[in-house]
Amino acid sequence: MTLLNFTILAAKVVLVMSVLLSTVPVLVWVERRGSAFIQDRLGPNLVGPFGLFQPLADVIKFLFKEDPIPIEAHRFLFPLAPLCSLVPAAVTFAAIPFGDTIELWEKTIVLQIADINVGILYVVAFGSLGIYGILLAGWSSNNKYSILGALRSSAQMISYEVALGASLIGPLMVYGTFSLREIVHLQAGHWGILLQPLAFITFFISAFAECNRLPFDLPEGEAELVAGFHTEYGSIKFALFFMAEYLHMITISALTVTLFFGGWQLIPGLTPLAQWMGVATYPTSIGLSLLQVLSFVLKVGFFLWIFIWIRWTFPRFRYDQLMAFGWKILFPMALMNIFLTTIAIYLKWI
Using CA atoms, how far apart are residues 81 and 240, in angstroms rounded to an integer? Predict the structure, then answer.
């Protein structure tokens, strides 16, 4: 790797990670204001205009708050667990293309950190590693509520990852590639949801369980387990778990957009803007590249709002209902989608 290529790669890593980490406090503010709107409350409105500085105040609180470690907790694994949950959530985004290419200084730069030819496998494999942080947190805390939350989470993740992985087989059969970048290019004529609606429904519902979001947040279950696996955590360690959850949401939303909604392909509303700007016929122009990135961001933002809206609208499942729904409904739906996709390909309908 040349020095220039290494510099470009490092710049992309720094830029993407900075955007991801800075998006987390924005999502926290949107969730708090959104939940207040849904429940007819005001929400944070005192710290800054419209409460915009409230996330900054929360960060300061996390940084300076006392950070105790329980006497009976494991001294090494207890502080390690939040990092084991955060790092997989952060590095998973590396394989997701957030744009096509951009021309800078007579060099074509791919708007993707790592163009991996098995991108889907990379995302699924690294995304599933987050469970180790939860298990370590529950076990190392030496707390009955924590270990119950960790056991719930492990059973839930294993169950719903089967349905989530099976839901991806249909799109893989249609696209014929594991490369996320190629999948986006193949959706230039029509988005994947038109060909795989059942796969999208199965995948997106399973994604809620993967992110431990309502109505599938049984590992935390405040009414039963205090705070579940992170009951004993506070200060910056709790903030790391908090960040990991939102980074998982961002990554899952970005993967949903990439597989089923054309990735960075322009949404219909941006096409007239591209034509007006005169960049629609120049695939490598900076203007079109920025519009593609904007299209990707808007799509991801829509699904992030869906995550927030669902959390404050639907009640939590009972644990037996959670497991039954995963094995008796979602998994058969994924298998049915594989069967229907096989027939459609054989009959050359798609």
Answer: 9
Only one residue has tokens 């105790």, namely 68
What CA–CA distance (Å, rounded) separates 260 from 249?
16
Is the residue at 19 inside a domain? no
**Burial bucket for residue 228 (CB in 10 Å: 0-12, 13-18, 19+):** buried
DSSP 330: I
The beta-carbon contacts of 54-61 under 8 Å, at least 24 apart in sequence, are 54/29, 55/25, 55/26, 55/28, 55/29, 56/25, 58/25, 58/28, 59/25, 59/239
Preceding omega of 97 cis (within 30 degrees of 0)? no
DSSP character at residue 329: I
* Prediction pTM value: 0.91
**Position 133 in a domain:** yes
Could you give the 3-state DSSP secondary structure of residue 197? helix
pLDDT of residue 277: 62
Which pLDDT does position 271 carry in this prediction? Answer: 66
3-state SS string for 256-272: HHHHHCCCCCCCHHHHH
- In a domain, residue 337? The reply is yes
Regions in the chain scoring below 50 on pLDDT: none
Residue pair 250/256 in contact by the 8 Å Cβ criterion = no
Count: domains in the chain: 1
**What's the distance, Cα to Cα, between the start and end of the chain in Å?**
40
Distances (CA, A) of 206 to 77, 145, 211, 213, 241: 29, 25, 9, 10, 20
Q: Which domain holds residue 97?
A: 71-346
Q: Tell me, yes or no, whether 35 lies in a domain.
A: no
